[in-house]
Every structure is written in structure tokens, then in C-alpha cells.
Design a protein that fits this description.
By secondary structure, the chain is an alpha/beta fold. It folds into four domains: 191 residues, ANL, N-terminal domain (Rossmann fold), CATH 3.40.50; 149 residues, Rossmann fold, CATH 3.40.50; 94 residues, 2-Layer Sandwich (GMP Synthetase, Chain A, domain 3), CATH 3.30.300.30; 79 residues, Non-ribosomal Peptide Synthetase Peptidyl Carrier Protein, Chain A. Helix content is 31%, strand content 22%. The chain contains 17 helices and 26 strands. The strands form seven sheets. A seven-stranded mixed beta sheet has the order 6-5-3-4-8-9-18, with helices on both faces. It has a five-stranded mixed beta sheet with strand order 11-12-13-14-15. Strands 16-17-20-21 form a four-stranded antiparallel beta sheet. Helix 2 crosses helix 3 and helix 15 packs across helix 16. It comes from Jaculus jaculus (Lesser Egyptian jerboa). It holds the Pfam family AMP-binding. One of its GO terms (biological process) is amino acid activation for nonribosomal peptide biosynthetic process.
Length: 559
């Protein structure tokens, strides 16, 4: 069975049903086409291509489409006639650049430009098409379903060629898919196409990243997206760490019936590998749950393994996820043949507990801070559950500074947020900085744009006024404030006694390092011997050490 056969069978049985509508949200009626129209258009496309060249050797076709009904139509028409479709961007120059290393034999454009005959040279001869039973070749029947390009957010961008056998489980086992349009055709349903600025339209299914959904804001999610009267039947979130149950519950209005799925996978194995439907009773429960939402069960024909650092498969504990299966194999980059059952390393780490997988984070989201291993997802999860925070993201800036970016709710006080984080996080997980932002920046694929966050932090640093202490009294007051804040001393503590020792007051090496960094940021220069002074002397002696090391009599003159 191929995607073409799946589509052809379903469409032929329901010719008069509306297949696709495009609404420009400009007050005009949407443009709609039936399955009969689409089959006819597919036949016309085949005739057009056959009149412009020999199609016998063509096995990859690039589609360049503007947003609109033609994007769905062209993909559908090409799917019915040829083995492989590559769907392109709006910017044709960018499309050419992104696919310059791919052997695209034809480039079809919906602009007035001429369709181009590609110059790609096949590296396989007719003899190459036969292969061992233990391997799959890129030209092997039934062939490729489509070609796509990874986002590059979790590594170098890759071209991924997806065989029919690899994508069919996504369509047949779970009726949502990376190619949602083909699922609609398989079910003879209506595919609604909307421009990017569309809003306020009734939707029955949303497939998005958690970050993209958070852009609505928690109030709008609860009052509209997941309200009691919403038209949304299914919410499928994937591509990033799934929100905690506490966050999900805070998003749902009383009486909401939307079915929520956690979907997991990687583009290199046709996007999806596992899915988990959050039970209604779990969503409605008032009991606090410390566990994350599990990744769920594998799709049809999918093999999921968790391996430890030595490469051995484990049944309990923490390890990296590997995905594959006999036919769940895609071709990456210039691969022309891969062994059946190839298992791809995902770079994602999970914890196995009681037969369930719980996502920890990507390999690059694990850091070593103050001598301890830290999953940055922990910081984000704790921060998001605080009442003052609407959404947030965490970065490890320059491999040395842990930054928490927050989209706040009304009335946020940064000092209060630090105190709350100290209550719920281990010392080595408390962020160095909290930066307020209006909204989380997104990549074109709906994920958090870490590069943009780093730029925002750099601008934030450059915009901060340079510290200038006005005399000994101000230095003493700020040292007292930092001492009390980092040690979480009672709020009614007016002043710290001169003889107070840091370690005896509840401090430790982590908090001492934190105080050391905050003092150097306050002064604006490094202070030799400061950390030792914090660990072994009183606050008054720490103060004297700063005075003696950094300031001259002229610097300390009152202004």
C-alpha cells in the first residue's frame, strides 16, 4: 500500500465531497474544490508534465507554493502521479538554496516563472535497484512518499527522504499526521487552509508545538481555545517538551471536552513515533501529580529503545531514545541504502519508570552547574507552575550563565519570583538572571528561538545602567540585601549582624558562589580572594575586604 493508493481509493469513492477550502479572511467566500475537481486537476498535471519531458527517470519533484488552496492542490496532484514530493517555501530563492544538494529532477512553481528541469544526476544504475533482503534502497519499490528538510533547531539541517512504508503507520494507526492533508483525503474529510494572519475561525484540530500554543497566553487559551464551548475536538502537542499536568489543568476551562495528545518523534523517522492520550480523569483530577506526562506507546511497526551511556538497552532508569523498526527507516542526506531496522539516535533523554517513558530533555539541554548535572527542563517546569508566570524559557548563555526568560502575568515582582524559585529548586538550579519579555520568540517551525533569546539577553545586558556606588553606606546596604536574599532570611530581618557568618546562617558552597557572582556584578570588576572571604569570615569582614581591594578614598567619597 502507498500513499497514492490510499488517496486514490478514498477520493474515488467520494467524488462530490468538498476536499479543500481556502479562506483569506477578507470577507469573501472561501475557495473550495471537490475530490472530483482534484482528480481532474491531477490528470491535467500529469498531461502537462508528460508534454514537457520524459518522466520515466523522474523520482523527485520540488513544489514551490504560495499560501493558498494551490499548496494543498499541487501537493495532492503530484502525490497521485509521482513517487516523491518536496514542498517548498514562499521564497523561491531560499527554496533553491535549501535544496541545492538534493537531486530534485523537476521544480514546479505556482508563480509565473517557468517550471525548471533539474540537473540532478542519479548515482544509481539499473543494477543498483536490486538489493539485499536486509537493506532498503532509495529507489526500491514502492519508493519514496515525500522529501522534507529538518528545521536545524536541534543540530545541522538534514534532507530526509521518507518511504511509503515509513509514513503509512502515521496515517493508519493514528489519524493525525505530519501530512495532515493526506489524512483528510484518507478519511474523505475537508481540509481548511488558512493564511498566516487568520484568527477567530472555528477549528476542530490543532497540531502545534507547546511554545506556539503558549503564544495565545494562558487567559485566551482558557477562555477560547480550551473553553467549555470550544469547537476544538483534538489538541496534539509535539516537537518540544510537553507541558506539565498542572499547566494543562490551568489551561482548561470547566466543562472542556477537548482530547489532548502528547506526540513524540523525530523527522528522521517520519516525525512521529509514539503518542499518548491524556485520560479525562487525569485532566479533571485535583490531586497534585509530580510526574511528567508520559510519551506513550509506539506507532504501528515502530521500535523504541532506551540505551545507557554504554549503548546497552535498559528497562529502567535514564538513557537516550533510539527509534526505528523494520520499515520505519528514512534516508538522511545522501544515503542511498540503509539496513532494514536501522535505529536512529534521537539525542533525547528519558527516564523509564513502571514501563512508561518520561521526557527529560535533549542532550544539549543537560548542563553541569556548580559540579552537578542539571536538566534545564526542570527550571522551566517549576517556573511555569508559579502563579506569576504565564510562560517561560531557559538558556545556558555562553556556557556559563543560566537565564530564565519569563512572560509575566500582571504584578510580577522579580525579587518575589527569585524567592519562590529558591523554595522549589535545588541550589544549583536557581537561575543567575531573570529577564522579562513580552512574548517567547519562535522559529519558523514553532519552537523557541534560542538564538533570538541570546540576542535579547545581550541587549538587556547592554541596556543596564552601569553600577556606581555612592559611598560606604550604599555598599553596606546592597551587601546586606544580597546576603539576606541568597540565604532566604526571614522578611522581618532588618539588618544582618556584623559578626554573621555565611555558612553558619544556612549558606553552602553553591550559595556562596552565587553571592560571589552577584557582588562582582554589583561592583563591575573581579575581586581576588572574595569567595574565600565569604566562606570563612563575617559579613563585616567581607565588606572590609571589598573596600580594601577595590575602592580608593576618592571612590568612597560621598556624593
Amino acid at each position: 500500500m502507498t500513499l497514492q493508493e490510499l488517496v486514490q481509493q478514498a477520493a474515488s469513492a467520494h467524488l462530490d465531497r468538498v476536499a479543500v477550502c481556502f479562506d483569506e479572511c477578507n470577507g469573501r467566500p472561501p475557495v473550495c474544490h471537490s475530490y472530483k475537481t482534484m482528480l481532474s486537476a491531477a490528470s491535467e498535471l500529469a498531461s502537462f508534465l508528460q508534454s514537457h519531458g520524459d518522466l520515466q527517470g523522474i523520482w523527485e519533484i520540488g513544489l514551490f507554493c504560495q499560501p493558498g488552496v494551490n499548496k494543498f492542490m499541487s501537493s495532492y496532484e503530484t502525490l497521485l502521479n509521482f513517487d516523491t514530493v518536496s514542498v517548498g517555501h514562499m521564497d523561491l530563492a531560499l527554496f533553491r538554496l535549501q535544496w541545492e544538494n538534493v537531486e530534485v529532477n523537476w521544480l514546479l512553481s505556482t508563480r509565473k516563472e517557468k517550471s525548471e528541469n533539474g540537473n540532478g544526476k542519479s548515482t544509481l544504475s539499473s543494477e543498483d535497484r536490486s538489493t539485499d533482503e536486509e537493506h532498503m534502497a532509495v529507489r526500491q519499490k514502492p519508493g519514496l512518499a515525500y522529501v522534507l528538510h529538518t528545521s536545524g533547531t536541534t543540530g545541522m539541517p538534514k534532507v530526509v527522504r521518507v518511504p511509503h512504508a515509513c509514513i503509512l503507520p502515521n496515517v493508519q494507526h493514528f489519524r493525525l499526521c505530519v501530512v495532515q492533508a493526506r489524512v483528510c483525503v484518507n478519511a474523505c474529510a475537508l481540509c481548511a487552509c488558512l493564511p498566516e494572519e487568520a484568527s477567530g475561525l472555528p477549528l476542530s484540530l490543532i497540531h502545534a508545538t507547546p511554545t506556539l500554543l503558549k503564544r495565545f497566553g494562558s487567559q485566551l487559551i482558557k477562555s477560547a481555545v480550551l473553553s467549555a464551548s470550544t469547537s476544538l475536538r483534538v489538541l496534539a502537542l509535539g516537537g518540544e517538551a510537553f507541558p506539565s499536568l498542572a499547566i494543562l489543568r490551568s489551561w482548561r476551562a470547566e466543562g472542556n471536552k477537548t482530547v489532548i495528545f502528547n506526540i513524540y518523534g523525530v523527522t528522521e523517522v517520519s516525525s512521529w513515533a509514539t503518542f499518548y492520550r491524556i485520560p479525562e480523569e487525569t485532566l479533571n483530577s485535583t490531586l497534585k501529580c509530580e510526574l511528567s506526562v508520559p510519551l506513550g506507546r509506539p506507532l504501528l511497526g515502530t521500535v523504541v529503545e532506551v540505551r545507557d551511556t554504554n549503548g546497552f538497552t535498559i528497562q529502567d532508569g535514564t538513557g537516550q531514545v533510539f527509534l526505528g523498526g523494520k520499515n520505519r527507516v528514512c534516508f538522511l542526506g545522501d544515503e542511498m541504502m540503509v539496513p532494514l531496522g536501522t535505529m536512529r539516535a534521537t539525542g533525547d533523554f528519558v527516564t523509564l519508570k513502571d514501563g512508561e517513558m518520561f521526557f527529560l530533555g535533549r542532550k544539549d539541554s543537560q548542563i553541569k552547574r556548580h559540579g552537578k548535572r542539571l536538566h534545564m527542563k526542570l527550571v522551566q517546569q517549576v517556573a511555569e507552575e508559579l502563579q506569576q508566570v504565564d510562560s517561560c524559557a531557559v538558556t545556558w548563555y555562553n556556557q556559563e550563565t543560566l537565564i530564565l526568560f519569563i512572560v509575566p502575568k500582571d504584578g510580577l515582582v522579580k525579587d518575589c519570583l527569585f524567592k519562590e524559585l529558591q523554595k522549589h529548586l535545588p541550589d544549583h538550579a536557581v537561575p543567575d538572571e531573570i529577564v522579562r519579555i513580552e512574548t517567547l520568540p519562535l522559529t519558523p517551525h514553532g519552537k523557541v528561538d534560542v538564538s533570538e533569546l541570546n540576542r535579547i539577553y545581550l541587549d538587556y545586558q547592554n541596556s543596564k545602567p552601569k553600577n556606581k556606588l555612592h559611598g560606604k553606606e550604599e555598599l553596606w546596604g546592597k551587601l546586606q540585601y544580597l546576603w539576606k536574599t541568597i540565604l532566604s532570611l526571614p522578611e522581618d530581618t532588618v539588618t544582618v549582624p556584623d559578626e554573621s557568618l555565611f555558612l553558619s546562617s544556612g549558606g553552602d558552597s553553591f550559595k556562596a558562589t552565587w553571592l560571589f557572582n552577584e557582588i562582582e556584578k554589583l561592583i563591575g570588576t573581579s575581586i581576588p580572594g572574595l569567595l574565600e572571604a565569604i566562606l570563612s569570615t563575617s559579613i563585616s569582614e567581607v565588606y572590609s575586604h571589598i573596600i580594601a581591594t577595590v575602592f580608593t578614598d576618592e571612590d568612597l567619597a560621598f556624593t
